[in-house]
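sry for the spam today, last one i promise. C-alpha coordinates for design, 201 residues
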Protein backbone atom coordinates (compact mmCIF):
# COMPACT_ATOMS: atom_id res chain seq x y z
CA UNK A 1 0.00 0.00 0.00
CA UNK A 2 1.27 3.48 -0.90
CA UNK A 3 0.85 6.72 1.05
CA UNK A 4 -1.50 7.90 -1.69
CA UNK A 5 -3.72 4.87 -1.00
CA UNK A 6 -3.66 5.69 2.72
CA UNK A 7 -4.89 9.19 1.84
CA UNK A 8 -7.70 7.76 -0.29
CA UNK A 9 -8.76 5.49 2.61
CA UNK A 10 -8.78 8.49 4.98
CA UNK A 11 -10.82 10.53 2.52
CA UNK A 12 -13.33 7.72 1.93
CA UNK A 13 -13.74 7.43 5.69
CA UNK A 14 -14.43 11.17 5.90
CA UNK A 15 -16.82 11.02 2.95
CA UNK A 16 -18.84 8.29 4.67
CA UNK A 17 -18.74 10.25 7.94
CA UNK A 18 -20.08 13.42 6.33
CA UNK A 19 -22.87 11.54 4.53
CA UNK A 20 -23.89 9.90 7.81
CA UNK A 21 -24.03 13.36 9.38
CA UNK A 22 -26.26 14.70 6.61
CA UNK A 23 -28.79 12.05 7.71
CA UNK A 24 -28.27 12.54 11.46
CA UNK A 25 -28.24 16.34 11.87
CA UNK A 26 -31.96 16.90 11.11
CA UNK A 27 -32.83 14.41 13.88
CA UNK A 28 -30.49 16.22 16.29
CA UNK A 29 -32.11 19.55 15.44
CA UNK A 30 -35.61 18.12 15.89
CA UNK A 31 -34.74 16.47 19.21
CA UNK A 32 -33.09 19.53 20.80
CA UNK A 33 -35.12 21.81 23.06
CA UNK A 34 -32.91 24.89 22.89
CA UNK A 35 -33.71 27.16 19.91
CA UNK A 36 -30.08 28.25 19.46
CA UNK A 37 -28.90 24.64 19.43
CA UNK A 38 -31.60 23.68 16.92
CA UNK A 39 -30.34 26.45 14.63
CA UNK A 40 -26.75 25.38 15.19
CA UNK A 41 -27.55 21.88 13.94
CA UNK A 42 -29.50 23.25 10.96
CA UNK A 43 -26.62 25.56 10.01
CA UNK A 44 -24.10 22.75 10.35
CA UNK A 45 -26.27 20.54 8.14
CA UNK A 46 -25.93 23.04 5.29
CA UNK A 47 -22.20 23.32 5.97
CA UNK A 48 -21.87 19.52 5.97
CA UNK A 49 -23.58 19.29 2.58
CA UNK A 50 -20.93 21.69 1.28
CA UNK A 51 -18.21 19.53 2.83
CA UNK A 52 -19.56 16.48 1.00
CA UNK A 53 -19.35 18.39 -2.29
CA UNK A 54 -15.84 19.57 -1.43
CA UNK A 55 -14.75 15.97 -0.79
CA UNK A 56 -16.17 14.99 -4.17
CA UNK A 57 -13.95 17.68 -5.66
CA UNK A 58 -10.96 16.18 -3.83
CA UNK A 59 -11.71 12.77 -5.33
CA UNK A 60 -11.97 14.31 -8.79
CA UNK A 61 -8.41 15.65 -8.34
CA UNK A 62 -7.31 12.12 -7.45
CA UNK A 63 -9.29 10.44 -10.24
CA UNK A 64 -10.99 8.13 -7.75
CA UNK A 65 -14.53 7.34 -6.63
CA UNK A 66 -15.42 8.66 -3.16
CA UNK A 67 -17.45 5.60 -2.14
CA UNK A 68 -16.36 2.21 -0.90
CA UNK A 69 -15.65 2.60 2.80
CA UNK A 70 -18.03 2.89 5.77
CA UNK A 71 -16.90 5.07 8.69
CA UNK A 72 -17.53 3.00 11.82
CA UNK A 73 -16.13 5.75 14.03
CA UNK A 74 -18.75 8.26 12.94
CA UNK A 75 -21.40 5.57 13.24
CA UNK A 76 -20.40 5.24 16.91
CA UNK A 77 -20.42 9.01 17.46
CA UNK A 78 -23.88 9.30 15.91
CA UNK A 79 -25.06 6.41 18.08
CA UNK A 80 -24.06 8.50 21.11
CA UNK A 81 -26.09 11.44 19.77
CA UNK A 82 -29.06 9.11 19.24
CA UNK A 83 -28.75 7.75 22.79
CA UNK A 84 -28.70 11.31 24.15
CA UNK A 85 -31.82 12.12 22.13
CA UNK A 86 -33.61 9.02 23.47
CA UNK A 87 -32.88 9.63 27.16
CA UNK A 88 -35.79 10.40 29.47
CA UNK A 89 -34.36 13.75 30.55
CA UNK A 90 -36.25 16.88 29.54
CA UNK A 91 -35.42 20.51 28.81
CA UNK A 92 -31.91 21.78 29.39
CA UNK A 93 -30.73 18.52 30.99
CA UNK A 94 -31.49 16.66 27.77
CA UNK A 95 -29.76 19.36 25.72
CA UNK A 96 -26.67 19.13 27.96
CA UNK A 97 -26.35 15.44 27.05
CA UNK A 98 -26.82 16.20 23.36
CA UNK A 99 -24.08 18.86 23.57
CA UNK A 100 -21.56 16.34 24.87
CA UNK A 101 -22.33 13.93 22.05
CA UNK A 102 -22.22 16.76 19.46
CA UNK A 103 -18.75 17.78 20.65
CA UNK A 104 -17.52 14.20 20.22
CA UNK A 105 -18.76 14.30 16.61
CA UNK A 106 -16.95 17.57 15.90
CA UNK A 107 -13.67 16.44 17.44
CA UNK A 108 -13.84 13.14 15.56
CA UNK A 109 -14.13 15.13 12.32
CA UNK A 110 -11.31 17.48 13.34
CA UNK A 111 -9.05 14.47 13.96
CA UNK A 112 -9.93 12.92 10.59
CA UNK A 113 -9.35 16.08 8.58
CA UNK A 114 -6.11 16.82 10.47
CA UNK A 115 -4.76 13.37 9.53
CA UNK A 116 -5.86 13.61 5.89
CA UNK A 117 -4.40 17.11 5.62
CA UNK A 118 -1.02 15.98 6.98
CA UNK A 119 -0.87 13.18 4.40
CA UNK A 120 -1.92 15.49 1.54
CA UNK A 121 0.79 17.99 2.55
CA UNK A 122 3.37 15.20 2.63
CA UNK A 123 2.33 14.18 -0.90
CA UNK A 124 2.53 17.77 -2.15
CA UNK A 125 -1.16 17.81 -3.11
CA UNK A 126 -1.62 21.59 -2.94
CA UNK A 127 -5.18 21.76 -4.34
CA UNK A 128 -6.33 19.04 -1.94
CA UNK A 129 -4.57 20.75 0.97
CA UNK A 130 -6.50 23.95 0.22
CA UNK A 131 -9.85 22.13 0.10
CA UNK A 132 -9.21 20.10 3.27
CA UNK A 133 -7.95 23.17 5.14
CA UNK A 134 -11.22 24.97 4.39
CA UNK A 135 -13.25 22.11 5.84
CA UNK A 136 -10.96 21.70 8.87
CA UNK A 137 -11.42 25.37 9.74
CA UNK A 138 -15.20 24.97 9.45
CA UNK A 139 -15.11 21.98 11.81
CA UNK A 140 -13.02 23.87 14.36
CA UNK A 141 -15.50 26.77 14.22
CA UNK A 142 -18.41 24.35 14.59
CA UNK A 143 -16.83 22.89 17.75
CA UNK A 144 -16.36 26.42 19.16
CA UNK A 145 -20.01 27.20 18.37
CA UNK A 146 -21.17 24.08 20.22
CA UNK A 147 -19.14 25.15 23.26
CA UNK A 148 -20.51 28.69 23.07
CA UNK A 149 -24.08 27.40 22.99
CA UNK A 150 -23.31 25.18 25.99
CA UNK A 151 -22.98 28.01 28.53
CA UNK A 152 -26.67 29.02 28.82
CA UNK A 153 -27.81 25.41 28.46
CA UNK A 154 -25.54 24.19 31.27
CA UNK A 155 -26.66 27.05 33.51
CA UNK A 156 -30.31 26.18 32.89
CA UNK A 157 -29.58 22.46 33.37
CA UNK A 158 -27.96 23.16 36.74
CA UNK A 159 -31.08 25.05 37.91
CA UNK A 160 -33.35 22.33 36.53
CA UNK A 161 -31.37 19.70 38.41
CA UNK A 162 -31.72 21.61 41.69
CA UNK A 163 -35.48 21.75 41.24
CA UNK A 164 -35.84 18.07 40.37
CA UNK A 165 -33.28 16.65 42.81
CA UNK A 166 -35.54 16.47 45.86
CA UNK A 167 -38.29 14.45 44.15
CA UNK A 168 -36.03 12.24 42.11
CA UNK A 169 -35.75 8.55 42.84
CA UNK A 170 -33.44 6.32 40.90
CA UNK A 171 -35.47 4.50 38.28
CA UNK A 172 -34.72 0.89 37.36
CA UNK A 173 -32.42 0.55 34.38
CA UNK A 174 -33.85 -0.74 31.11
CA UNK A 175 -32.18 -3.57 29.16
CA UNK A 176 -30.09 -1.17 27.06
CA UNK A 177 -28.76 0.66 30.13
CA UNK A 178 -28.02 -2.65 31.89
CA UNK A 179 -26.04 -3.88 28.87
CA UNK A 180 -24.12 -0.59 28.69
CA UNK A 181 -23.27 -0.87 32.39
CA UNK A 182 -22.16 -4.49 31.94
CA UNK A 183 -19.89 -3.51 29.03
CA UNK A 184 -18.43 -0.62 31.01
CA UNK A 185 -17.63 -2.92 33.93
CA UNK A 186 -16.04 -5.40 31.50
CA UNK A 187 -13.91 -2.60 29.99
CA UNK A 188 -12.73 -1.64 33.46
CA UNK A 189 -11.94 -5.25 34.36
CA UNK A 190 -9.94 -5.81 31.16
CA UNK A 191 -7.97 -2.60 31.74
CA UNK A 192 -6.95 -3.62 35.29
CA UNK A 193 -3.77 -5.54 34.38
CA UNK A 194 -2.42 -2.46 32.58
CA UNK A 195 -3.66 -0.10 35.30
CA UNK A 196 -1.83 -2.13 37.93
CA UNK A 197 1.48 -0.97 36.44
CA UNK A 198 0.47 2.70 36.71
CA UNK A 199 1.01 4.24 40.14
CA UNK A 200 -0.51 7.54 41.12
CA UNK A 201 1.97 10.33 41.67
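last one done:
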Amino acid sequence: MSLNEVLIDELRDLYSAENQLVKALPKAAKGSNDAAMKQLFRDHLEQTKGQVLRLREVFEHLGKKPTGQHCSGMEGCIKEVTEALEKDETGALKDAGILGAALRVEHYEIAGYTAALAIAKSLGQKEIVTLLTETLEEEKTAAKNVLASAKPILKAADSQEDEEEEDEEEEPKDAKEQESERQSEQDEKEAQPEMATKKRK
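Residues 126-165 form the longest helix (40 residues). ok im logging off now
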